[in-house]
Write a structure and sequence with these properties.
This protein is mainly alpha-helical and 174 residues long. It has a domain of 108 residues. The protein has five helices and two strands, in the order H-H-H-E-E-H-H. The protein has a two-stranded antiparallel ribbon with strand order 1-2. The relative contact order is 0.11.
Length: 174
């Protein structure tokens, strides 16, 4: 069942947030289908519904960006920073600095000389990909009868590995 089948044996399931899981349990109670093909069909239906909603949200995001950009110009022309509406709400515009990294190595060298160094964190996706690769490599070595020397680090210190089951939809062609 997948390329990680040997790796995930014995790993605990990924903990879920209690409040979210309560909502999931209520939603599960409302699902009337319980057989695998029926659940797969329901999953496809819900994914299609989500894609429709995502497309709507994406279009709204573009419209908001257009209105914001027009608004920034109009506020600047009128020398305004805020407009109060009839309902009492206000719409403000606040230009502010926005940092963008152009040379990561140069930035890293500087950060290492400051208290910010303690704030550095590896992006989760990078760490997760590295841990997956390390686990697969270790599993393959073990299958081949190769024993890692003592002290070999497979899972980095401070990291716990859980099982998170993914659902993947492969759409029909055509």
């Amino acid at each position: 069942m997948g390329k990680y089948a040997d790796v995930v044996k014995g790993l605990p399931p990924l903990p879920t947030e209690a409040g979210h899981q309560e909502k999931v349990e209520k939603a599960k109670a409302a699902v009337t289908v319980r057989d695998a093909p029926g659940l797969a069909q329901e999953y496809v239906r819900l994914r299609a519904r989500k894609e429709e909603q995502d497309a709507i949200a994406s279009a709204i995001h573009v419209e908001l960006a257009a209105v914001e950009q027009l608004m920034w110009g109009a506020y600047e022309d009128a020398q305004l920073s805020s407009v109060k509406l009839k309902d009492g709400s206000a719409v403000d515009v606040r230009p502010e600095p926005y940092a963008s990294v152009k040379d990561a190595a140069l930035l890293r060298a500087w950060v290492d000389t400051t208290p910010l160094a303690a704030s550095l964190a590896l992006p989760w996706a990078t760490l997760n990909a590295d841990v997956k690769a390390r686990l697969l490599d270790a599993s393959e070595r073990l299958k081949a009868g190769i024993t890692d020397p003592p002290g070999t680090i497979i899972v980095p210190p401070g990291v716990t590995v859980y099982v998170k089951t993914q659902t993947v939809l492969r759409k029909a062609r055509g």
